[in-house]
Specification:
Mean pLDDT: 89
Low-confidence stretches: 1-15
Largest sheet: 4 strands, parallel
CATH topology: Rossmann fold
Number of domains: 1
Strand content: 5-15%
Number of helices: 7
Length: 165
């Protein structure tokens, strides 16, 4: 059985940029049959930044991997889910932020008022803008997504987008 330990924000001081990753980028980085898999994987695990994601990504990744298995895209989902869990563990390369409601929910609601976003897409941007910015401090803050609509809203909110959606 997988252990899904949580990290609440490893220090980003040793890296120049903090990147908040949406599940669309994480799925593409882990699923080899996804378009631009290698490019997104290199971007996600680039050594120049610390990658943060919301705890929502854990649930979304589980759903995406299970759906891929049901569709016959992968034969056995367990090794991939185990790898994701290891990468989201406290000593892994993905820093998982708990979903703080202070500021995040209101910001997500505002994003939905201004942009044609799905709720979880707005929540990921809001986590970047509130919690990601707090963790980044004076470091640069980027947002990794493979969703064009979400990228447009993130850009309009002032986030740097190193991946072209």
């Amino acid at each position: 059985m997988r252990s899904r330990a949580r990290s609440t924000g490893r220090a980003a001081a040793d890296r120049r940029v903090v990147a908040c990753a949406d599940t669309s980028a994480i799925v593409r980085a882990y699923m080899p049959d996804e378009p631009a898999h290698e490019r997104v994987r290199r971007a996600l695990f680039h050594e120049r930044w610390t990658v943060l994601t919301s705890v929502l990504a854990d649930v979304e990744m589980t759903a995406a991997v299970r759906a891929a298995a049901r569709a016959g895209r992968i034969a056995d989902p367990e090794p991939l889910l185990d790898q994701v869990a290891a990468d989201m563990a406290p000593d892994g390369p993905l820093v998982v932020l708990g979903l703080s409601t202070e500021g995040v929910l209101g910001r997500a609601r505002d994003l939905c008022d201004r942009h044609p976003l799905r709720a979880l897409d707005a929540l990921h941007i809001a986590v970047a803008l509130v919690d990601g910015a707090r963790v980044a401090g004076d470091a640069g803050l980027a947002f990794l997504t493979c969703d064009a609509r979400q990228a447009e809203a993130a850009r309009a909110s002032g986030l740097e987008l190193p991946l072209q959606a």
